[in-house]
Amino acid sequence: MTHRFLRILGAVGAACAIGLPASLAAQDLITRDRVGLPDAPNTMTFRLTAFDLYSSDAATRDAFEALFTAFIEARPDWKIETQIVTDNIGQEQARLLEQTRAGRGPDCAMVDSSQLALFKSAGVLAPMNAHWSAAEIDDLFPYVRDAVTNGAGDLLAWWWFTDLRVLYRDTRLVPDAPATWAELEDAARATVEGGKEGLLFNGGRWEGTTFDWLAHFWAQDGRLVDDAGRPVFAEGENREKFLAAVRFYEGLVDAGAAPPRVTSIVNYDEFNAAAAAGTTGLFIGGNWQYGQLRGTLSAEDFAAWEVSAIPGPTPDQRATGTGGWTIAALSDDAAAVEVCADMIREIYSGQSNAIQGLLPTSAAQYEEFDVFEGPEYDVFAEALVDGQARPGVPIYPELSNVIQIMMGDVLSGAATPEEALDAANEAVQAAFERL
Amino acid sequence: MSETRRAGRAAARPAIWPWLAPALLLLAAVYLVPILDVVRLAFGDATLLRPTQSYGLDGVGDVLSQPALPGVLWATLVFTAASVAGILGLGLFIALLVVRGETRRLPGMALLRIVVLTAWVVPGIANGLIWQMLFSEAPFGALNSTIALAGLSPVRWLSDPTNAMISAVIANVWQGTAFAMIVLYAARKGLSNDLYAAAAIDGAGPFARFCFITLPQMRPSILVAAVLVTIQTLNTFDVILALTGGGPGRATEVLSLFTFNTVFYNFDLSGGSVLAVILVLIALVLTVLYIRLLVDRADGRP
Amino acid sequence: MTGRRAAWLGDLATYVAAFLLVTLFAGPLLWLVSLAIRTPAEIFLGAARFIPEEPTLANFEQILTDRTFGLYLWNGIKLCALGALGALLTAIPAAFVFSRRSFRGASVLMLGILTVQMVSPLVLLIPLYRYMERLNLLETHAAAAAVYMALGVPLSVWMLKAAFDAIPRSLEEAAAIDGCSAASVLFFVTLPLAAPGMASAFILNMLMGWSQFLVPFVLLSQDRLQPISVAIFNFAGSTSASTTQLLAAACVITVLPAIAAFLALQRLIVGAIMAGAVKG
User: Fold this and answer.
1) DSSP assignment, residue A257?
2) Which of C25, C50, C200 minimises the CB distance to B186?
3) How close B157 comes to chain C (CA, Å)?
4) What integer pLDDT is reported at residue A50 of this predicted model?
């Protein structure tokens, strides 16, 4: 018996030692890990998401293959070696930092806009000043410009698409867009009386909870950190603004205008499901969900859904959180940085937005492409004026973490807003000391 | 005669160190340096952004004095105790059930084993997809709409702090049972039928056979399963991360998830290393405790 | 008569319990399958629909015709088979010594070996990367396989020791009288009797290697080197269109080799016991 067992083990080992031929079609210009010819003398390594060139969606992939083919045919001396970013953002950024420090990082990489600050402060980004004009940089939305430049005026990354949060409503239940917190609560109650769940929003332990809710804090001009990057949200007038925004959400749940289950929502897709099932009439979601709803709902139902800006305490106080992805160069090699910058310009900035329907980061690009003509883009573009990026400081992820914890404790009734705020502040100050 | 016997025994006794060498050298080559590095980091102030600048005990004190830590340790205790009990209990039950079915030549037992195993090998990324739908508290949530058919009112699976812990344990037991099942199935299969035949002659019922033959005979394997399942559970966080992220609040934030947050949200590499060392100490204490409980009371030989 | 009736009732109870367990364990899996056979239009319905209105096998087709999916699967099989094999081969002599010899420090050493498994892989990840980078072993299957092997050693030593302990020494002593060396006693007497334990240790190592994410994620960043456990993320996520259905299909397909390996090796356990029964 053992002999048979060992024979099988031996066979497995032998098979491993020989190895299967890993040959792919060698002369393809685009493979899973390369763009260009394998024997091109110069190499730029590029770490990208699986959203575009390697998208599972055939139409998207074809469009990007065409762009990349044209790009590399114009540079026959170059090949791009590609690596894919997983969506484990935490481990991914740690790996990228380690690799860059060890001199093994990619020359060029997509970095989530919320992680950009980390790489800026680690000093691993190569300036790309030479490749953009001052006018082009000036044309970026203010929050974008702040994030991609440093104090010395260097351009350290190109933020090529953005996103934002808006209020979705079923106009059959809520005909008019609520403009204030009070109107939003009334509208939510009206949907509950109509047999729906009330206002849905992210309230669980994940980044979306903090990010979406911050719109209510930012609308009052609240500040999370001071100029030195120290958390100040629990001090002075920020404290009152912060508590007001927390109490607003607490009040929604207490009054039954939002269901207690919001503390379990850790995914925007949950809102699509509720809209499709017809169990909600109001939710705070991302701009990209508009396209998802179009594909999921019947034409008649979809026509009833509209987007508007997230209400603030008064009609004049508005804000919305903005995210998206950047591309940065991490190389000492000026030639590789140039190819990276050219690639951003020729493939990603503009073209790529249009193919994927992703919001551009400068006003001019909305005019340039026909894709952005729908009425929803008017709402998005208007709301982006009030756009706020997350503060570009290394303490932000922990700040977000304690706000998520606070939200769960308050909305599940485990703590009062004041207690939860003090606990959050204590934790984040301790973390800041150690950072 | 006695001389031959002694000589034979001596020849059959394996020498200690040469036989241990392959395993020890492999472990040392791969892990010695990184583990010592973790210990070194624990006494420093390194972050993901910069290397250690000074060493001392201050950092250890900072980590241990965090107000969140007692709650996290309590959550770890509850989650680990419930998960280990569930995984071992269910794993043992399934192993014995399958063996009974096979002895009686009942068809279909392979299906049970395969289904339990599949739960274990499904890629971690699927957990989030599956459990979010099952435990969804939306009116159309999978579990809630099922129990509504039975006329029961919906359960707040994830938004209630206590229930969230129960749900996390359910998801973890679902995934982890296969491990205990495989270990205990092999152990039960290894038991000699003579004991059971003798017990049958003595007229022992199924319960008596379980208590006086199966359990004592399987004790060494149960010990191994308990130790390994405990260590795995202490280091598990992906199920919880996918299900609740540790929430609501910190209700389901176990030590391994807290470590994850410390390293990847705080970038606090040294703090994370302190927590990792604490986790090792907890696992060691539990292992010694199991050995005491399961071995010393018996004949002294595991 | 009563005996037969009791046995019949026992069989019934066995089936009732088995049915409940299958339901419990299969339920969540069926939801995964439900996602895997949906069209993108139905994916966002989430839990609101279990059986899709327009079920499709297109997702499976897309995954199976992906040029590199087979390579990822092969990388996964290679790493976890090498890892399991290496762990078993190094653990067998160690476990035999722990079982058959008592020596000072044996229990401390057993605990020490286990400690390796207790260190949080999350925290170990960064020192491990730095160490492998100094050794210049990043981006090699050899280094990744060595880590897989080392990961499997503690489990294998503990499990095999328990398996060896359960084997009566009288047989080994008889062989020793015949003049066999320790190695041949182990190989010809002990190992055949410990086959069930060995097979389950091998199975567990294989399957744990199969779902290993962190080690290959850190040590291998080149796409063509990655095992399926990491590469599956290539099918995850999209900025606008849903790829959840593809991801679910990839997960379902990924499970199949693991089940096949399990079934093949489980057969060995049962076979070993039958062989033992005939001998005994």
Assistant:
1) S
2) C200
3) 15
4) 86
